[in-house]
Prior knowledge:
Strand order of the largest sheet: 14-15-16-22-21-18-17
Amino acid sequence: MSAKEPLKQPQPFEHLTRQVKANPSGIALQSNEGSFTYRDAFDHSKKIAALLRQRGVKPGQVVATQVSPHLNLFFFEALFHEAAIGCIYAGPTSDLEIVDWVLSTSKLPEVPDSKTILIDQDFLAAAAMLSSVIEPKAFDSFDSICRLVYSSGTTGTPKATAFSISLIESRVATALENWLLHDSVISVLPMSGITGTLAAYANVALGKTYFAPGNASENFELISNYQIAEVVASPAQLGDLVKNAIAASQNLNSLELIVPAGSMLSEQLAKALLEVAPNARLMNLYGCSELGTIATKREPDFNPANMGRIAPGVEVQIVSQARQVLESGSEGILRFKTTDIAGYFRNPQANSEAFKDGWFYPGDIGFVTPDNHLMLLGRSIEVLNVGGVKINPDQLDGILKTVAGVQDAAAFSYRTPTGTDGLAYAVVEGEGFEPQQLIAAVQETFVALVPTAICSVAQIPRTATSKVLRKALAEAFERNL
Length: 481
C-alpha cells in the first residue's frame, strides 16, 4: 500500500468526499456483514451525522461509540463530519467525565441516560430516512483534536491519547513507510487503539478497502475469501488464525506479510504461522500510542528481548532512576523522543508522570546494541519482587509457555492474607499438564524460585495488543483468597 503522492492535510471527512467523487463504486468497507461501496459509505455516514446533529452532538464534543464492528467506519466518518472528537468506548474503567456522549447498541448501566444515544434499529431506520445533503462542520485548525485512542491498558487504567488532524496524518505517513505496505491489509487490532485507527484512516485516504475485523473465524474467512496480503494482529490473535487454518485444513496462501504487534512472537507460534501462510514473511513492530512505531524487526530472530532496529526519527536514551543518561550499552530505563508525540487528553497528572523535558517514559527497561537494535528486558512498573528478588514477568511468561500442556500462562504477584507478597502462575491448561514440570522449567533459569500458588484459568486477561493484565489477575486471585 503506497500513496502516489503524499497525503495532504484536509479536514478528515474530505478524504471520503474525494473518494466518492473519484470511485463511487469502489469497495470502501468489507466485513462479514457484506460489502459497502464508497457511495454507500458516504451516504450512510452523512445520514448518521445528520441524525447525531439532531440529537445534540456538537463540534468539539467527545463522542464514544460501542457499535457493531461493521458500523465502526460509518460512525468514524460521521463524527469527522460533525467535527466531534470520536473514540471507541473503553468500558467502565474509562474516564466518563471527558465523554459528552456514548453511542451504544445497548443501555450501559454506568453511563447516564443524559449521555446515551442508543444505536438500535430505530436509530438506523431514522437515519436512513434523512437526506445526505448537509454541509459538514469543520475543525478549527489542523491542530484540533479529532480522535482519541486508549493507551496503557497494562496498568488497568486506560488513558485517552489525543490525536490532532496533523498528528494522525503524520502517523499515517509513517505507517505507510513501516507497516501498511500492501494494497489489502486487515488490522485485527480494533479501532480502539492507534493501529486499528490508522488502518481505517489510511484506507479511506488512499481509496482502498477497509476490512472490518470480527471474531477469530470471521477474520480467517475475510483473509481467505478476499485474498488479503497483510495482517496486523497481536500474537494471541495470530494464534487464533493458526487454529482456524488447521481446523479448516486450508492455508492462507494470499498472506505476504504478517505483522505481530503488542508483544513478541514465540518461536513455536512463528513456525506455526509460516506453515499455514507459506508465502508470508514476519515483521515485528514495537511501538505505542504515544509515539507510534519505535522499532521494527524484519529479519528472523526469536530472541524475545530484541525489538528490532530503531526506526528513523526516533531518539532513544537509557537513563537511571534519577534520569541521568547512562553509558552506551548500559541497561536502564528507556526514554524516547519523536516529532509525533501524542499526549493524554485532559489528564495533566498522567502527562506529568509520563512526559518529562520532551521525553516519553513508557516504563520499559532495556538497552541499545551497537548496531542500533532495541533490547527490551521488561517493564519497571511490572517487575515482580519475590522475597527481595526482582524478576521480569515477561521472561517468566516465556518460560511457562514452553511447558508441555500449557496453552497460555502468566506470572503475577499478589498480596497474601498475612500481608506478604506471593508469586503465582496462572495457567490455561491443555492435555498432559503437570504442575511439577512448570516449576522445574522455571528453576532451570531461576534455581530457587518456587511459586506460592498455581491457578488454573479459562483465559489470561490481556489488552487488545496482547499485554497481560497482571493487576486483574492479582485482584481476582486475592478475592478468591
